[in-house]
């Protein structure tokens, strides 16, 4: 079996082509909402405020613990849902010269985010949606291309879900064994009225993240199903190419015979 045979055996058609168009429309709506919610929250509009609100009610640790760790030169351990671990860090160095004799100079390292991870994957998803639409119109968006694209998107959004719903066990007196309070609890009282809107935005961001991850799982399932269950067109192409290859092989193996070429009659 040659390269042409292998290429002909790869399905190029979707089992449910209309479903792909519906998924494009749904994805566009959800991604616009996600990009708006992620962009509003960037870089730290309400994350630290919600962290402090949970600490005031005893639902999680206190954000001031980071300041104490920096001041006492202790390793800084920030809980995952409140940390910068799922954003791209940028490091700033603060250098202090000794002011008195005998004092030692020191360098304090502080990390700050330059790009929010959720915003990055939302922009990436929207760009890929544009590319997928163009490829679909040009009839080149085959399931073999869709499978790795949506597998990567599922992995990215799964990381985001894990980071947003991670526990906070850094404070033994106020453990948070599950997701943050703004996900598991209501945004009404006893939450301060000034933070209830931020709480709803955080809930919405987590909800659209789950919706996009589930949508990309649907894409991935359809892609794999279209690959594992070839369409009739792929089988016909494979059969035609196999027949043509066998005919060429037979013609090459057929022995050559020398035949006498008849001369045309002379003209008067």
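^ Assign residues to that structure.
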């Amino acid at each position: 079996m040659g390269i042409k045979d292998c290429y002909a055996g790869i399905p190029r058609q979707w089992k449910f082509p209309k479903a792909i168009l519906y998924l494009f429309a749904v994805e566009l709506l959800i991604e616009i909402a996600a990009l708006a919610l992620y962009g509003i929250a960037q870089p730290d509009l309400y994350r630290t405020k919600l962290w402090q609100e949970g600490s005031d009610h005893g639902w999680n640790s206190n954000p001031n613990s980071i300041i104490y760790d920096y001041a006492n030169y202790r390793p800084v351990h920030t809980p995952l849902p409140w940390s910068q671990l799922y954003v791209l860090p940028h490091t700033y160095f603060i250098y202090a010269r000794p002011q008195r004799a005998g004092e030692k100079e020191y360098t304090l390292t502080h990390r700050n985010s330059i790009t929010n991870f959720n915003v990055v994957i939302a922009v990436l998803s929207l760009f890929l949606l544009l590319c997928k639409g163009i490829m679909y119109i040009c009839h080149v968006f085959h399931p073999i291309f869709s499978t790795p694209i949506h597998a990567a998107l599922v992995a990215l959004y799964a990381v985001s879900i894990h980071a947003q719903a991670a526990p906070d066990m850094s404070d033994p007196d106020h453990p948070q064994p599950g997701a943050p309070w703004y996900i598991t609890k209501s945004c009404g009282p006893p939450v301060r009225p000034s933070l209830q809107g931020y709480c709803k935005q955080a809930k919405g961001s987590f909800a659209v993240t789950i919706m996009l991850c589930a949508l990309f799982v649907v894409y991935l399932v359809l892609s794999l199903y279209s690959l594992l269950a070839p369409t009739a067109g792929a089988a016909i192409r494979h059969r035609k190419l196999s027949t043509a290859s066998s005919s060429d092989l037979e013609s090459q193996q057929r022995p050559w015979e020398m035949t006498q070429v008849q001369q045309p009659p002379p003209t008067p």
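Residues 85-98, 103-115 have pLDDT under 50 and may be disordered.
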